[in-house]
Amino acid sequence: MDINEVKDRVKIEQNREVIDTVQKQLLRERLVKLLFSILTKSIAIFLLLIFFYFTNTLQIDQFISDGVNKAYIDLERVDKSRLITFSLEGVASDLKEGNYSGASKILDELPSSHHKDWFVLLTYLGLNDFNTAEKYLTKIHSQTDHIYHNEIDYEFCLKYHVIQVRSFYDQDNNHYLGKSYTIKK
Amino acid sequence: MSFFSTQSNLSSKDIVHFVSQNIHLKKCVRTLYKENYTLVEVMVLKMYGTKLDAEDVFRYALSKVIWLIQEGIIDDEIELRTYIYTLSRKLWVNTLKKKNNYTYYTSDSYHENFNAQLLENLPFNEDDLYLHREFSETYKNCKPLEKRVLIDRLFQYWKSKTSSSLPKMSV
Lengths: 185, 171
What we know:
Order of helices and strands of chain B: HHHHHHHH
Oligomer: heterodimer
Distance between the termini of chain A: 96 Å
Helix content of chain A: over 70%
Distance between the termini of chain B: 43 Å
Radius of gyration of chain B: 17 Å
Number of strands of chain A: 0
Number of domains of chain A: 2
Structural class of chain A: mainly alpha
Order of helices and strands of chain A: HHHHHHH
Number of helices of chain B: 8
Number of strands of chain B: 0
Largest sheet of chain A: none
Number of domains of chain B: 2
Shape of chain A: rod-shaped
C-alpha cells in the first residue's frame, strides 16, 4: 500500500463516516415512526373501547326520557293553551313509558310549536325513524331563536349518532340471523 | 427539481452532480441508502452472510462509490445502483473467498445490476471486508492526529504489515 493509496483510503473512510451518521439517523427515524405507529394504534384501540362501552351503556329509552325532562312545560303557567299543554303532557307521559306510536298520534293533532318540534324529534328517535328525527334535529339546531336550540349540544348529537349507528347494526344483525325484529312502539 | 420535497426525486445524475460539487452530501447518501440497501442485503443474505455483514458490505461499497464520484472516475451514463451492487457483490465474494466459503453461483453473475466490465477499470477491486475493517480500526485509532501525521502513521502501519508475515485476521 503506497502513500497515495493510503490517502485515497482515508477519503473513503471519511465517506464511510458520513454514511454511518446517515445510517444512525435513518435508524432513529425508523424507531420514532415505529413508536408513533404503536402510540396511534393504542389510542385508536382505546377510543374504540370507549366507543363500545359508551354504545353498550347508552339506553335509548333513558336518553328519550332525559330529553322529555328537559322540556319546558309548566302546566300552571300555560293556562290559555290548556288543551295543548295537556296534550304535550300526554306526549311526555307516553314518551316516558316508551309508547312512541301513541305519542306520535297525539303529536299529529297538535299545532306547530317549539315544544312539538322537540317531542317529534324524541318520538321519531324512539320509532327508529332517523330521517324524520334528523329533519327536526336540523330544524331546531338551525333556528337560533328556537327554545330547544341550546339542547342540541355536542353531547346530544354524539348520543343521537351512537343510537343511529347502533340501530343500523342491530337491524343488520337481525336481518342476517333471520330473526323477526320488532321495535317497541 | 424539487430538492427539498418530502419525497426524494434525486436521479443518479443529480447525485453525481451534487457529490462531485461536494454539496448536499448527506441528502445524497440518504437517498442512495434508502434506494439500494435492501438490494445488497438480499444478495449478502443469499450468499451465507449475516445482516451485520450486509451492513458493512453496503457501507464500504457506498463509501467507495462516493469516492469514485468525487474523483471523477465514475461513468455517469451507468446507474449508481449498478456501481453499488457490483462493488458490493465483488467485496462480498472476495470476503467469502478469503473465508474459503465461496461457491460460484451462475445466477449471481446474471443479476440485472451486476456489471463485471465495470470492475476492470476500478481501483481497489480486490478489497474484502477483512481489509476494510482493519483499515477502519487503524484509522479510528489514529484519527485524533493531524491529517498529515495520520496518513504517515497509517502508511507506516500498512508498510510494516505487508513486509512482515501477517497473523491470520479474524472477522
